[in-house]
């Protein structure tokens, strides 16, 4: 059994901090800044960058993507700098959980893809870059954001092993399972052939 670098109490502190930071929604913030209306009544009703793009405002969508990716990355990097890698994994995972189930929005959040990628970039940038490239390639080929996300999550742990980052496998598996769970409705639509493409309202 691995020895924790960080005392349990500090891990709990980082878990709470990660969750609260992750609960801050870039999409909801940008919808107010750009006057886009209620995201819950637009497109899929999701708060992520893909749904913000359905408003036609590319700047708002890009800002949402950056905010949601940055919050996972920054809290993980901060935890790592202060307490170590195990704290970074805990804080980052909880930021992802906070994005998906935010306390500020009645636990109804996004799918977590941007936060997932930002977190991977922070914990192991080669894995993060490989996953970003995977998402971009699949999204460009299919024009279906959800399929790109599901495929990227599925191969993320393979990238971890291939790139010598096996210490991330535990959190990687948990993140992958949550990405699949958050996309369960998308998976059903993909199977039915009714999943909308990127930019489609």
TrEMBL record:
Keyword Transmembrane: yes
Superkingdom assignment: Bacteria
Catalytic reaction list: an acyl phosphate + sn-glycerol 3-phosphate = a 1-acyl-sn-glycero-3-phosphate + phosphate
GO cellular component: plasma membrane
Keyword entries, A-Z: Acyltransferase, Cell membrane, Lipid biosynthesis, Lipid metabolism, Membrane, Phospholipid biosynthesis, Phospholipid metabolism, Transferase, Transmembrane, Transmembrane helix
Description of how the protein assembles with itself and partners: Probably interacts with PlsX.
Sequence intervals crossing the membrane: 6-30, 60-82, 88-107, 114-138, 158-181
E.C. numbers: 2.3.1.275
One biological process term in Gene Ontology: phospholipid biosynthetic process
Function: Catalyzes the transfer of an acyl group from acyl-phosphate (acyl-PO(4)) to glycerol-3-phosphate (G3P) to form lysophosphatidic acid (LPA). This enzyme utilizes acyl-phosphate as fatty acyl donor, but not acyl-CoA or acyl-ACP.
Bilayer topology annotation: Multi-pass membrane protein
Similarity field: Belongs to the PlsY family.
Locations listed in the record: Cell membrane
InterPro entries: G3P_acylTferase_PlsY
UniProt entry tagged with the keyword Acetylation: no
Protein name, per record: Glycerol-3-phosphate acyltransferase
Species the sequence originates in: Roseovarius faecimaris
Single GO MF descriptor: acyl-phosphate glycerol-3-phosphate acyltransferase activity
